[in-house]
Amino acid sequence: MKFIEDQLHKVKPLFEEGGKLHKFYWGFEAFETFLFVSDRTADTGVHIKDGIDLKRTMFTVVIALIPSLLFGMWNVGHQHFLAIGEMTALADGFMDKMIYGAIKVLPIVVVAYGTGLGIEFMIAIVRGHPVNEGFLVSGMLIPLLMPPTIPLWMVALATAFAVVLGKEAFGGTGMNILNVALLARVFIFFAYPTYISGDVVWVAGEAANFVDGFSGATPLGVAYLGGAEALANVAVHDYSMWSLILGTVPGSIGESSVIAIGIGALILIATGIGSWRIMLSVVIGAFLTASVFSWAGISYFVGVTPFMHMIMGSMLFATVFMATDPVTATQTTQGKWIYGFLIGVFGMIIRALNPAYPEGWMLAILLMNVFAPTIDHFIVQSNIKRRLSRAAAL
Amino acid sequence: MTKLSRGYDIKLLGKAQDSFLDVAKPTLYALKPTDVHGIGPIPKLTVEIGSEVLAGDPLFFDKANPDVQFCSPVSGEVVEVRRGARRAITEVVILADSVTEFRKHDIPSTESASREDLVKAMCEAGVWPLIKQRPFNVLADPNAVPRDIFISCMDTAPLAPDQNKVIEGREAAFQKGLDVLGRLTDGDVHLGVGPDSADVYTKASGVKVHAFSGPHPAGNVGVQIHHIKAINKGETVWTLGPQDVAIIGKLFTDGVFDAERVVAVVGDELNTTGYWKTRAGASIAPVLASNIKHDNVRSISGDVLSGTRVAHDGFLGLYDDQITVVEEGNKMEMFGWLLPQYKRPSRSRTFLSFLRPNKEYHVNTNNHGDERAYVVTGQYDAVVPMDILPVFLVKSILYQDFEQMEGLGIYEVVEEDLALCEFVCTSKQPVQQILRSGLDFVRLEG
């Protein structure tokens, strides 16, 4: 440890004012502060500070995403072997499935991190500011939002688009209006829709080797076309409630397992990093809306119960990891309830009534990202009005 | 009883033991113009180096407030006038006599004298600067009549002195001070007391007593004002600490400016903690002498949240009743953000320390991270028990929106009220510094 610290001290002058590599200072600084918390002391106000910082905060979210990532890797392998008719039982070939999934998933993770962090470092060096930790989370979220068959260049392009136009153009972490990871996904969704929607992209492997009758459609896709009845009669797959909760169904890499997402949600809520208010209010909004549709019978999802709606598709993943992004969500406590509730309502409306595409969370969250400042504005104004009326009452 | 639930008690090692320290009488004392907000940086000196003064003799006054005298807390010789940037006077240093002699002031009767005469006597005798005015936490304007006067008789700050102990033996002076203050306002004198407050506070006469409980900052007078009768635009109120009231009282009972302070000497970098009976402006050197465990420490006049850093031979602030000594955190820590090498207090539940809420911690001054843009939300709200949106207020100061600052309640807060925000901030924003710049902006432009 001491050795590394000494080496860092030795090369540090190169990066400081007047050093040969001064223009790379912020690159060096990011590396240094990753290894060592700096020796800076509190000097303008309070004399002691809380141990928490942005690195730890972001890293906590990454930890919360690990269960979804690991399950996602296994599931990519499992879906593949299911499709080709080998080792179809859950307990079979754990290592084979993990390895197959890792080969498919890890390159996506590496490309997303590589592209995003590369851009972040470059911009930090050019503009002379510290590298922000925000991308640690975005870089993990982006792969989990992708189908396993996504071409890597597309991941790189989408990540670059999201980081440059979605975040850095607004001033970097903390300043962006739209959720960066969702922006990457929505970029692919509109630019290359066939690579991220439909029935064939969710299972990795050569379609020619798949067993007869295997469709690869997600539970959501099946229920959208045929309702609860079709869901109960899928060939090869089992789309029962328990399969959905366990997550052994096709879908985006990180979205399928309710259990893995639930572990992540517990980590976020227990540590206080993720807003439980937003999570709860999204679920309430979505459940109520689904109940109304199911009661009125005006949904494409004939006979699908509100509870099934909750565990299908990307709803829970979006609720736990995307809606709670503190930068793009509302900042006031009351605002969080409104924001989350409306995401639930709009997401379910888009899912149930959209004739073209049966999933709405990405669009609902981006829509509410845009309206979050407006919601906060009204909360802030009400605080101001309360203060004014108190003065006027005298 | 107003129960406040939001806030946070930072539990630290090094609480004051319930006994008085045996400390040599300091030889040097200093009055620091920098302790008082709202006065010019270069006050007019009425003494020069070599002048002999009695306790209660004027040392300087602010050019904009020539009536308010800043008086020497001890008798002795003026030995040095220390200056800082742009020749601002930072300390007027007095070499104290071994026995303090007091200037005897002619004091009007509390009951029969006019308000004007009372104010005049207080200004001349040196007790006036003990009164702070809100909004802005500045020197009270002797020409203003405050709506109310507020005194917090509980201190919830980290390692704060027991306010019952610091007033022991001065109960009569305290009550006398309250009587005088009662004459200065058209409204009421309000005392904020805690669950354990002594009778001197809870049974004080001629005042309104309000009970508060809850974690820090429940003991902050600003928080109490907000819940008793919040400050609206255009209103002024005054605030004091209990010992300040006693000092004023003593002027009216004995005719002397006796700036006695009972100070809690705290922090786990000290061999012995306890209470120290001294005077405002005392050199802290005798307290630290052979009492600090090592040299790499920071001494603070005040508490760790909003106290002022002073040199090891520096001076106790005019308003302070606490000296805290903590370790400097000027060390790098490998992967400290991920795997901390020692336990530290945190409001965040990412540290397992939240499972042991009553554990007391050793702390150092490390920043534990670098400044970032705001990312996390809801952190500030959780430690400010007022109907105020702290982040929005801070942001309105950063973009200098005058109306927004007013609307969001800048008149109701001073640095200490938002100090916990700065402590808990994930983005390490200098909240108190920002707030002071906003307060000055509104005060000077408004």
Descriptors:
heterodimer, A: 394 residues, mainly alpha, 2 domains, 63% helix, B: 446 residues, alpha/beta, Ubiquitin-like (UB roll), 7-stranded mixed beta sheet, 5-stranded mixed beta sheet, 20 strands
Describe the structure in brief.
Chain A is mainly alpha-helical and 394 residues long.
Q: How many helix segments of chain A?
A: 15
Q: What overall form of chain A do the CA principal axes indicate?
A: globular
Could you describe the largest sheet of chain B, including whether it forms a barrel?
Answer: 7 strands, mixed
Unreliably modeled segments of chain B = none
Low-confidence stretches of chain A: none
End-to-end C-alpha gap of chain B: 36 Å
Question: How does this structure look, described?
Answer:
- The complex is a heterodimer of chains A (394) and B (446).
- Chain A is mainly α and 394 residues long.
- Chain A has 2 domains: 2-35, no CATH class; 54-379.
- Chain A contains 15 helices and 1 strand, in the order ααβααααααααααααα.
- The relative contact order of chain A is 0.10.
- In chain B, the strands form 4 sheets. Chain B has a 7-stranded mixed sheet. Chain B has a 5-stranded mixed sheet with strand order 16-15-19-17-18, with no helix packed on it. Chain B has a 4-stranded antiparallel sheet with strand order 2-8-7-4, with no helix packed on it.
- Chain B contains 11 helices and 20 strands.
- With 446 residues, chain B is an alpha/beta fold.
- The mean pLDDT of chain B is 94.
- Among the domains of chain B are: 261-340, Ubiquitin-like (UB roll); 381-445, no CATH class.
- Chain B has helices spanning 115-125, 163-166, 171-184, 199-202, 221-229, 242-254, 285-288, 390-398, 402-407, 419-424, 431-445, and strands spanning 2-3, 28-31, 44-45, 52-53, 58-61, 69-71, 76-83, 89-96, 132-134, 138-139, 149-152, 189-193, 208-213, 237-240, 260-266, 274-279, 297-301, 308-310, 322-327, 333-334.
- At the A-B interface, strand 1, helix 3 and helix 15 of A face strand 20, helix 10 and helix 11 of B.
- Strand 1 of chain A pairs antiparallel with strand 20 (333-334) of chain B, so a sheet runs across the interface.
